[in-house]
Design goal:
The chain has 124 residues and is an alpha+beta fold. The protein is built from 3 helices and 7 strands, in the order E-E-E-H-E-E-E-H-E-H. The longest helix is centred in the C-terminal third of the chain and has 14 residues. The radius of gyration is 17 Å and the shape is globular.
Length: 124
């Protein structure tokens, strides 16, 4: 079904990506100072997906990408695709699944996985 995944950039600002059902990143949002702004924009996007516009481009390296516009606002930028067909499949995935996709939050500084050394100590 796909998912919106919230995380932090190296500069401590927040961002989210939309991933496909197979876990591949389709687009990455702009930066947000506060996490709740990320969450609000995801919800706004899910409710207004029919207003989304996809501006398609071909980069100087020959790869394809799109800018996702919500109204007149630049909302996100896609990953690079090798063909126009793959780009179109990415857009189709958004249109079909984004409105019902879940939001996953990986923005905390805590590790989601246990520390490897702690696990080894517990096993001994």
């Amino acid at each position: 079904m796909g998912a919106f995944v919230i995380s932090r950039r190296f500069n401590d600002e927040y961002k989210f990506v939309f991933t496909s059902r197979k876990g591949k990143v389709i687009f990455t949002s702009l930066s947000y100072e506060l996490k709740f702004e990320c969450e609000e924009d995801i919800e706004k996007f899910k409710l207004n997906i029919e207003q989304a516009k996809f501006l398609k481009f071909k980069g100087s390296g020959g790869k394809y990408f799109f800018k996702l516009m919500l109204g007149e606002l630049h909302f996100a930028t896609s990953r690079k695709y090798t063909t126009e067909l793959l780009l179109q499949k990415g857009i189709k995935e958004i249109v079909n699944y984004a409105s019902k996709s879940e939001i996953l939050d990986f923005s905390s500084n805590e590790s989601i996985f246990e520390d490897e050394e702690m696990v080894e100590d517990e096993m001994e």
